[in-house]
Amino acid sequence: MTVVGVDPGLTATGYAVLEAPTRTGDGPWRVCDSGCIRSNRGQPVEIRLDGIHGELDEVLARWRPMLMVLEGLYTEYGFPRTAILMGHVRGVICLAAAHNEIRVLEIAPAEMKKALTGSGRAGKDQIRRAVTRMLGLKKSPSSEHVCDAMALAVVGALREGAAL
Predict the structure, then answer these.
(1) DSSP 100
(2) How far apart are CA 63 and CA 30, in angstroms?
(3) Does residue 137 lie within any of the structural domains?
(4) CATH label of the domain that carries residue 66
(5) Distance between CA atoms of 135 and 31, rounded to whole angstroms?
């Protein structure tokens, strides 16, 4: 089962493509690809969104995952502009999924944290340790965006029936 996790952001969008076993004994989880799509704050928003869409579209076309797991929208009421910009980013991410005929599953940050650590209030370090252990990584992901994308992909794959 191939799944992509996406941690959306206008400045940095993390992604991780994982292969998950569907039966116990089918082998370990495998990280096929991961990275961070970055955009330049000095460019107009439409150029930044086009870059995010284009790079993610290439990743999806290369790996053909069956599922995209997208972090649910989280924003604070005091920052409505941030919520609108995140909506734009999520829109181009969903467009890339639709273009590649990939189903999208949205998971809230607290839901992902609870599934991995047992606590919806887990910190970044707890998530990093859980992801590193579950995926059998030799070293932790250096980017928190990539780490969150890996965590989302793991939780989504488990919901779809992947084996531990």
Answers:
(1) T
(2) 13
(3) no
(4) 3.30.420.10
(5) 8
